[in-house]
Design a protein that fits this description.
236 residues; mainly alpha; DNA polymerase, domain 1; 3 strands; 48% helix; disordered N terminus
């Protein structure tokens, strides 16, 4: 026997439709399956979007990404910024931007309020460098076998060129054998924009380069036994 039950108008009265939950789940699935992002990346994005979802719930905001505007996202970021540094805030903004790009790609959202969010400036750590004593130790440490001595001669020459001539690392790596003129104590350097300039070489730099060039023949590929025909500084 079937019993007809009348619809209760109060059922679901206090329950809001949570489209945002389905949107976040779809995005996380997209990152994991289609984009094959690293598990840590997926987990980080999911955690940031979960925080946004909780904020929307607590503030009685629309539980639909398509109905959240830039001010709502800014309020979320401000509410979670008290215990977060610039790098964490930037990551949360990146998660929101990626989330809304996904929704736009799936035609689930027409506007992208996250695109207008400004990333905070993240302080860049100062580069680590060798102290004078450490650099001196590198260039003066003796070695026993010819191969190790060739590597040491190369490293001494590299340090002398960097310290003595002020070249950038990229410029140093691009030096060729014919760019060095020990007799004229000069080097032709290809800088930014493909512009060439002539850099003077000091006496210590010329000496270090001459010693390295004498030992350069020892630096060959460990398996093939070959070496680059024109590069000045060779790898191991």
């Amino acid at each position: 026997m079937r019993v007809a039950v009348a619809d209760d108008p109060n059922v679901g009265h206090n329950r809001r439709a949570d489209t945002l939950r389905a949107q976040i789940d779809a995005f996380v699935q997209y990152l994991s399956v289609e984009r094959r992002q690293a598990p840590l990346t997926v987990a980080t994005y999911a955690r940031d979007l979960e925080a946004m979802h909780r904020f929307a719930q607590s503030q009685k905001l629309p539980l639909d990404a398509a109905r959240l505007d830039r001010e709502a996202l800014r309020h979320y970021l401000a509410a979670t910024a008290h215990d977060s540094g610039p790098a964490t805030i930037s990551r949360r903004i990146s998660a929101l931007r990626a989330f809304y790009r996904f929704l736009a790609k799936r035609r689930l959202c027409t506007d992208n309020p996250a695109a207008a969010l400004r990333l905070p400036k993240v302080a860049k750590p100062l580069p680590k460098f060798l102290s004078v004593d450490a650099a001196f130790e590198v260039v003066t440490t003796p070695h026993d076998d010819a191969y190790a001595e060739a590597l040491a001669a190369r490293d001494r020459a590299i340090l002398e060129v960097l310290y003595g001539s002020g070249l950038r690392v990229g410029e140093l790596c691009g030096l060729s054998l014919d760019a060095i003129d020990l007799a004229e104590r000069a080097a032709r350097v290809l800088g930014k924009g493909g512009r060439e300039r002539v850099v003077p070489l000091g006496g210590a730099t010329v000496t270090a380069l001459a010693q390295y060039l004498q030992a350069r023949a020892c630096l060959r590929h460990p398996r093939k036994g070959t070496q680059h025909p024109s590069a000045l500084f060779l790898g191991q």
